[in-house]
Amino acid sequence: MNNWILIISCGLITFLTRFSMIALLKKEMFNDRIREVLSFVPSAIFPAIIFPAIFLDSSGDFQLENNPKIMAAIIAMLIGIISKNIIATIIAGLASYWFLIFVI
Amino acid sequence: MNNKFRVFLRGIFDVSPLMIPVVPFGLIFGVLSIDIGFSPIETMGMSLIVFGGASQIVLLQLFSGGASSLVIISSVGAVNSRHLLYGAVVSEHLSGLKLVWKIIISYFLVDQAFARSNEYFKNNEDKNKYFHLVGGGITCWVIWQTTTFLGIVLGALIPEKLGLSFAVPLTFLALLVNDFRKFINIIVIIISGLVATFGFNYIPYKAYVIVAGVTALITAAVLTNFKKNE
Fold it and tell me: Residue B99: closest CA among chain A residues belongs to which residue?
């Protein structure tokens, strides 16, 4: 049951962030400056999920040697920069990861 | 053909190409959620109630790391703060609508639907144009629920050796592809990543996502300010 309370709370906060601006605000309340800074939210938040998942092991210790995730992430990033394509980036990363753990 | 329905179909048509990357994302979510120990019903409930890919993955990630509910909920809030921007941008096009439509549209206001409908709204002055967002949003919804379901079913068949958990950082990395070319974004990305990685064991309550996100956002505010004053 506890899990359901957590799920519903996360649902509520997701809905409220989407709803609040549509319902309450007029466009003028968000000046260009705030808009500009908010446009950096993905760049500011997503790496906080990406980096620990690549560089740390499941117990939170640094894992810098024998870590195929680092090389696979670099390859994915390079493919992403070249292709600007989300799906190509994911496929390149997974393919190189599997290549590193199964073939080499 | 009824105009509302035509705009609705246009929304489906416009958002469809953006659904391709959502398919693996939904599958990965379903597989991981079961892997972490949520029941199939809870997993499906997350996709139905939360209906936000990034939010749901953050929920899983922190839950499996043993974070408290409060930290999970506030981290989901931090991830969602980008929706404040979307809402503020589309609100001018929706100001005449009834409350019930605003509620419906808010539920469907996901990244992909926002991106396509915002373009459509800018170029069209039709009083029914909000049906574009409804069409795009429902398309995302159907794909997300279907792939979550398939992930739950397939999860049992996928061997752990495949290391699918690596798909989580990979998916978020892929969502940033357009930001790797911009100088300020690169600095912001590196700061957020370093704070989260080095703070992972030291920031209490697993609040590293929030601490790293806020630090990086402040950096973005400072750097864009410098750029303006040059």
Answer: A23
